[in-house]
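Reviewer 2 asked us to include a model.

Predict the structure of this chain.
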Amino acid sequence: MSVGRRDLLVGVATLGAAGNFRPVLAISSARSGLAGALPMPPPATTLAPRLPVEDSSRALMDHGWLFHEGDIVAEAPRDHEATYLSVKAGNARGAAAMDYDDSDWQPVALPHDWASAQPFVASANVSQGYRPRGIGWYRRTLRLDSSDRGKRIELQFGGIATHATIWVNGSVVAHNWSGYNAIRVDLTPFARFGDDQNVIAIRVDANAMEGWWYEGAGMYRHVWLAKRPSVSIATDGVHCDPRRESDGLWTVPVTVTIQSIGEEDAPVEIEAVLLAPEGRPLSRQRLLTTAKAMEGGEGRLDLAVTAPALWPIETPVLHSVEVRLLRGGEAVDERRVAVGFRSVRFDPDKGLFLNGKHVKLKGVCLHQDHAGVGTAVPDTLIRWRLEWLKAMGANALRCSHNAPTAELLDWCDRLGILVMDENRQFNPAPDYLAQLEWMVRRDRNHPSVILWSVFNEEPMQGTEAGVEMVRRMVHVVRKLDDSRPITAAMNGAFFKEKNVMQVVDVGGFNYYQQEYDPYHAAHPARPITSSEDTSAFMTRGAFASDPARHIASSYDTDHASWGASHREAWRMIAARPFVAGGFVWTGFDYHGEPAPYEWPSIASFFGILDLCGFPKTAFDIHRAHWIDDAPVVALFPHWNWRGMEGRPIKVMVMSNAERIELRLNGRRVGEAAVDRLMGNSWDVPFVPGRIEAIARSGGREIARAVQETTGDPVALRLTPARTVMAGDGEDAQPLTIDAVDAAGRHVPTANLMTRFSVEGATIIGTGNGDPNSHEPEKGEQRSLFNGLAQIIIQANVGARGLIRVRAEAEGLRPAFLTIDRLSVPPRPQVPVSPRRVRAVT
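Predicted model (structure tokens):
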């Protein structure tokens, strides 16, 4: 890993009326600094921002769940009467029965991924990361007040991996066949009120696989309970994506879908207001319509606006559309939706234009798991991961290969990250079209979403049947959203007589970079982008490949046969204006798909950052490629090569400056014009001491990177991402553990076991970024891997106080850390009602 100097600056997070955030984490190389510094930014001193409330009619239902690992098979009915009753509504048996005794089940809070706590087992599926998944059950009781009668009660499950059957009060209310779409249950007809409890039971079959990567298991996204009036706005029932007209003026067409459980048709009024970022009304319209009994209706309004502030990726500005549903002049339901004014155009010769300005897509592909927590990633940790990508200069991500959690898109809107939103199942059958429709309805208001991707690497992509399948999927997308182009991520068949590029708006190339020029020459009117590229291998902190030990060099020399190095892949894209940009496979390492190795490797080697989000040298390579507005210089490897004195060490420098000078212990080793794409390198005989790269532009030093030979580790160090946390039971952050020498310098070669304890917070996961490690990712110990390990903590609910963390290792001075825990009210949660088990006589 490159641990040379980066000038690490932390900005202050700010929240405007419409939720406009500046990134907390910013990395530049504008000044020289301390040699051997920890390769992480210094802690932020502000709370992580909280996402604004869009729908006040709902509350979280993440608490109060009970979990049982393994299947529970109901006993077969013994006679005719039992059989007769078993198929009647409300008479589910076994663990789905209302009176089932779940008193010995494990209490869990959501999000919850039970696979993340499993051991690694050689006989388990390789693609899923050698972790058994299996079947599990969840149960929860729910009390509804008598005053809730007459309301529409809706359960909203953000995502359950993978196949799920849901019962409410002994009746099956939903089957779901994907781990990536939300499940919405109209609980109203099954509901019980007052002292009668409601029992929710969920059977999850995580043996079912949709992907060839780690998918987790269980209820790994949030669950919400919505209580709305009998006539109300439907979930995802507001479509208000701003449009730039041909005359350059902007409008916000607002379509509102109304639902009704009423017994009679009802006259209603829809009011829509466009709000400026600071909350000032800019435009207002009202519309009278009728909600039909047991159906609802739809209304459309147009909000005109003059010269709104635009949504660029550098300084994303969000407006809001506030929609109210009125009956008798009184508001009965409302939504507040963040929107951004931006236009998207893909030009076949020049690539992407955002608001008329050319933007090269500097993107990464991203799976959704993280060390220690699996797919159950807390909202604040999602943001932290995205901030690392922004700090690298990335401006885009591809949701690979599935619809993401809703919070990821909310953060992308606020951080200025462009998104290729991708469908999971390539299938126009009704069940799967419903999943595609759900994704578009949920995500079509996000300014960050600029492309819909209908599939990834399908064998039928070059067949007549594949074209017909895509035509139907494209039709569904365009019916719901006609403002964004549609793509498909293809890995071949580009020149076949029948192929899906003929029926999408932007051609997506997964690899096959040698085909860019021939395809553009043959189809000059079709825009294209790299939808996936690179597939390079790196083990963080290792600088010599050792296939026998499953180690890949960090010099950017190892890559898959179908891919290229980080440098070569971007060189191919940067040199071609007609290629809109690229999406590196991948931004972070992820569990599963452990290419190029299998057991005992349990995670991928593709990431620019490792499983914990610790940067590999690829991070600095892309900083040099992608950052234009701040000086960048990075120097690797580390300079700890005891026993190799006098032997040549390959030294690489990545920079965006004009010239680089390399010095060792004050002596000039060499100087060269910067090769920004491929980097500069020298073979330098190892001498302990200080090696530094000085970057110059216009003859003036603009940045400096330094590595020093360190002593043996003498102490541990704990570094938080933030020095303050919210005492709301949700706020989570990673803490970095490293070892330092007597001079306080990071020791990048330390590999030793550490143990830790926390007060005032809960440890929800651990990691160290080693793709070959089989250490548990839950618990109170973790070994350093090439100098680093990570603890993920979640602040307990409580009044203002301190979170205290201690880390120790044999023979080293322990580390102590205190974090301020502020008294921040938790988000509204559905109260947990004690279970009352009916006596069986």
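Helices lie at 80-86, 379-391, 406-415, 430-443, 464-480, 516-522, 566-574, 617-626. The first strand starts at residue 7 and ends at 10. We have added this to the supplementary material.
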